[in-house]
From TrEMBL:
Protein name (record): Uncharacterized protein
Species of provenance: Trifolium pratense (Red clover)
Taxonomic classification: Eukaryota, Viridiplantae, Streptophyta, Embryophyta, Tracheophyta
């Protein structure tokens, strides 16, 4: 806790236009389904003239050409929404994009598609993926994003193919800080706040310099306003990442995202999936396995990813695990604000850079117990 207390909260700024835009999104959510597409088109045409929305409406034919008829060789990923293809948009100077096509039989549907279009049309931040455009033609639901050349964080943490270099400690901390900044923007700058609700490694995309951007906003929810402490909703998200109070009661707050961040941060530190049924029953659940170890500093090195081969700053490991531990508290009110987490990670990343430059024996360890 002392590490958080020494970090000052950064000053928050709220854009007046953002408040109006999210109010529009809130009103949109309660429109009848048959009127939503019409509403999106009208908003797109109206706001484009004002320069507020940059996303473009594509035809199905245009996206089919861009992806060579959604050829399997152009497929770069697959998730709950559907398959993702790499493509080039001729009308945008052959811009390279990621094209996500809704699986008609999949879990996520038109509601999630529309929610993502609206949120990413209104919210813009360096740590949120940029929505280039979308297609809502007939029964087709397709989202077009900026292309992120290094895929997802998940691709660089688990089951690495032979010869693929694991992420070093500095890059992991850089990614964690950037992802936390994305959440901070949603929680503190959006008005009303937006609860991401699906924070996990596969939803953190990485550009050519490993800068992270949050993606997949289909499950995002507007947070509580006024004197309300939470919003009540059907439990959605990915098992293992959901905060315990949300999973048991359906009561959602921004602290629910903080818990999910703690799970992903622990994955980044340990190199373990939150659920891994190939391990022994005692180690299947990452959080259950790690919590006892987090209470004993002499066990901290056993939590570090073996692929790091001891190349991490001892102080940095202590502080990173302290941050993860605070985020994973069962009592949601005791968890830090994401702004506190961002500030703490900023200090941690700075220390890592200094340690990397000095590369002193005191800063780096190879193996053994903490003293």
């Amino acid at each position: 806790m002392s590490f958080f207390s020494c970090c000052k909260l950064q000053e928050k700024t709220t854009k007046s236009s953002l408040k109006k835009n999210l109010k529009d999104y809130h009103n949109f959510c309660f429109r009848p389904d048959h009127g939503k597409r019409k509403y999106i088109v009208e908003e797109e045409n109206e706001r484009d003239e004002k320069g507020n929305i940059t996303s473009k409406i594509f035809t199905y034919h245009e996206l089919s050409v861009a992806t060579k008829n959604f050829h399997v060789h152009n497929m770069v990923g697959e998730g709950g929404f559907g398959r993702v293809y790499k493509g080039r948009i001729k009308s945008l100077d052959n811009k390279v994009v990621a094209v996500k096509k809704l699986n008609k039989n999949g879990f996520q549907g038109s509601r999630e598609f529309l929610a993502e279009v609206m949120i990413l049309s209104f919210l813009h931040n360096t740590n949120l993926v940029n929505l280039v455009g979308y297609c809502s033609e007939g029964d087709q639901r397709i989202l077009v994003y900026e292309y992120m050349s290094n895929g997802s964080l998940e691709d660089h943490l688990f089951e690495l193919p032979p010869g693929k270099k694991p992420l070093d400690w500095y890059t992991r901390m850089k990614i964690a800080e950037g992802a936390a900044r994305g959440l901070e923007y949603l929680h503190a700058e959006a008005s009303p706040p937006v609860i991401y609700r699906d924070f996990k490694a596969s939803n953190i995309l990485l550009d050519e310099n490993f800068n992270p951007k949050l993606s997949d906003f289909g499950l995002a929810k507007l947070g509580p306003t006024g004197d309300k402490t939470h919003v009540s909703t059907r439990v959605m998200g990915t098992y293992g990442y959901c905060a315990p109070e949300y999973a048991s009661t359906g009561q959602l707050t921004t602290k629910s995202d903080v818990y999910s961040f703690g799970v992903v941060f622990l994955e980044m530190i340990t190199g373990r999936r939150v659920l891994d049924f190939s391990r022994s029953s005692e180690e299947e659940n990452l959080v259950t396995w790690a919590l006892p170890l987090l209470k004993n500093k002499r066990k901290y090195t056993t939590l570090a990813d073996p692929l790091l081969k001891g190349n991490y700053p001892m102080r940095g490991l202590y502080q990173a695990l302290a941050i993860a531990s605070m985020c994973l508290l069962d009592d949601a009110t005791a968890r830090p604000l994401i702004g506190d987490v961002v500030t703490a990670l900023g200090v941690l990343a700075m220390h890592v850079q200094v340690g990397k430059q000095k590369h002193t024996k005191e800063t780096y360890i190879e193996q053994g117990e903490c003293s």
